[in-house]
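Quick one, probably user error.
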């Protein structure tokens, strides 16, 4: 990778607040009790917005209202995990997590970002990186695309399991005995909440965690449901759960 391309990526992910004087755009602040959103309009580069809350700074081209909603959700997830794990504080001096949300997966992949100090596992070949995370001492960086993860369930492993099930039921071969499964969908918000939960554990309760443990923490909080009355539901099975895991005979 060339030095110029690497520097360009680092400049993007350092997430310096957009300044209108530097790009010829205009800024419009949108405030709420918990989140402040600043919008930068630039005809050449598009419209990026910056939302800052107590523990998170997010950059995205989405609407200001949507950006404020996601920021508030992350703050509520922080509060939930802080109570469950007895870590963190409503206000502390820990550097805020900086998140960049790209419009689509193609733009995200074009950056060529590789997780060198963090990663999901253990099935990296089947599930390529959907997020980029760097636990830097001067402020952690998280980048991902605002697009769903499509998981193909018609794998060789599924095919062989269908064949074994058919043979166990006295089928002579596997012709016509396999199932055509619809792909499972994992929304980008689930990916974001999972990454945020993993980051919380690594930041406020650091240890040499195995990947399967961090994946489990991410899964528990990836499907949170935030209610208008302030309640939060978590650890719910995601959509398509029963399509991924075969029922076990008891």
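Nope, works fine. Designed sequence:
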């Amino acid at each position: 990778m060339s030095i110029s391309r690497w520097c360009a990526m680092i400049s993007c992910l350092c997430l310096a607040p957009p300044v209108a004087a530097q790009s010829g755009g205009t800024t419009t602040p949108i405030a709420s009790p918990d989140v402040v959103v600043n919008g930068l309009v630039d005809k050449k580069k598009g419209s990026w917005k910056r939302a800052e809350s107590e523990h998170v700074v997010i950059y995205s081209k989405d609407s200001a209202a949507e950006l404020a909603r996601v920021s508030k959700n992350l703050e509520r997830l922080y509060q939930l995990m802080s109570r469950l794990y007895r870590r963190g504080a409503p206000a502390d001096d820990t550097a805020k997590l900086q998140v960049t949300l790209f419009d689509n997966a193609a733009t995200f992949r074009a950056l060529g970002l590789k997780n060198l100090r963090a990663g999901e596992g253990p099935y990296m070949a089947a599930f390529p990186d959907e997020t980029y995370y760097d636990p830097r001492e001067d402020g952690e960086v998280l980048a991902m695309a605002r697009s769903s993860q499509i998981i193909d369930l018609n794998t060789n492993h599924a095919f062989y399991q269908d064949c074994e099930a058919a043979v166990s039921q006295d089928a002579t071969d596997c012709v016509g005995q396999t199932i055509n499964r619809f792909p499972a969908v994992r929304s980008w918000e689930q990916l974001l909440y999972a990454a945020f939960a993993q980051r919380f554990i690594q930041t406020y309760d650091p240890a040499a965690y195995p990947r399967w443990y961090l994946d489990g923490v991410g899964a528990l909080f990836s499907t949170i449901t935030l209610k208008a009355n302030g309640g939060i539901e978590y650890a719910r099975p995601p959509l398509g759960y029963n399509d991924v895991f075969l029922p076990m005979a008891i």
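The radius of gyration is 21 Å.
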